[in-house]
Amino acid sequence: MPRAVLDELAAGRGGAEAVARLRAAQHSKTLLLVRALLVLLRETAHPDRTAVEAAYRVLAEVPPQDRVAALAHPPVAAWAFGTVSLLDAGDASAVYPGLLAAVAATAAVHAGADADLDVPLAPGAAGRLELPGLGTVTLPVTAVRARIRTAGGHARVFAAGEQVDIDAGRSTDRRWLPLSRLDIAHGGLPLSLLLDTRTWRYVPGLDGNRRFGDGSTDAWRSHLDGAWRILVEHHRPVAEEISAVLRALVPIPAPRRSIRSGTFHHAFGSVAMSLPPDARSTAAALAHEIQHAKLAALTDLFAVLEPGSPEPGSTELFYAPWRTDPRPLDGLLHGAYAHLGVAGFWRRQSRVTEPGPARHHAEVRFARWSRAAAHTVRVLAAQRRLTPIGRHLVDGMAGVLARWLAEPVPARATAEARRLLAAHRARWDGRRAPTG
Description:
The protein is an alpha+beta fold. It has helices at 3-10, 15-44, 49-61, 64-71, 74-88, 99-111, 208-211, 217-234, 236-245, 279-301, 329-352, 357-381, 388-405, 411-432; strands at 115-120, 128-131, 135-138, 145-151, 154-159, 162-167, 176-178, 180-186, 189-195, 248-251, 261-262, 270-273, 317-318, 327-328.
């Protein structure tokens, strides 16, 4: 990675060149995982080996853009990492390697290619066949395998004596349930997201039926329309990164107050989020999560922390001004990088908002999160386990935050931000005070 690109990422930015490099590296990672999957299946004589090898050949033959699109679907990337990790550890009980055959079918449909694939159904799938990135076919519960033939963008699925026809991801057959898609554009910049809560059930370690919420497109569209307008008009560089990276939205249940959001380290291009209360909080959450996505991809390329255990007598758990639980060192770094993005969002938002309660709200949040991130970056700078790349990242954040802290903020907003920070720390200390 060129030093200038790394400098931009260290400052919390990046832009088109950085995210393009990160995306290419993530695709390379997934290709390596798929290749490792084949090797592990041969070593263990797994029953899905033949189907997976045939799927691999189909993926190798489709045009690169269709192969990339199928393998880069975020839950597919997460599935590949989790499946290879468990197989490598000798645990084949909770994996579904046959999903690669369904991924190959999706790629063949997109490419309009001819293919004939044997697709094992997942154990316990009850006749449910996922075509990742396209949709779900409902088959008889007795079905354990399906045959998929594709040609000219058309797919025909055979299983347990039944047949379902799909044309370029569409079908009038009630047994076909396509994925919902949100396509939004403003100012010439598009945002295209699949609402996928289904493929995740095959990612080892995740329980999609418990963790995921309602995927109604109408409610999400209204929030994302307004959020995208805010991001494109007032935070264009951030919007450009989001447009280039995000591919999948994973709705999750809402907490009692505020909003929940998160990213999956090995599912580059996805964001999990509860339905936000308004467009501005949606925009802020996206600005937050794109930071996590960039840092996760960067740490796949470069180690930012030296391996090893904490120093004797230290648990290496730290206070984070945005959490109620102690954070490990890598979690602290991720939180600081994300809140650098949050502070930057509110800094820009305060400058484009008319005087009044909304501007005060933005000023308070800028003051709070810039101070919180600066405090955390100082803690990070003192850690011996930072690698040269990790230290470069911390130094880059520190330089940006030092400039921001020198900027004038109205006294009332600064005072409120300090009260919020002090109250958070007092609650954190109170929960950990020894009891007599």
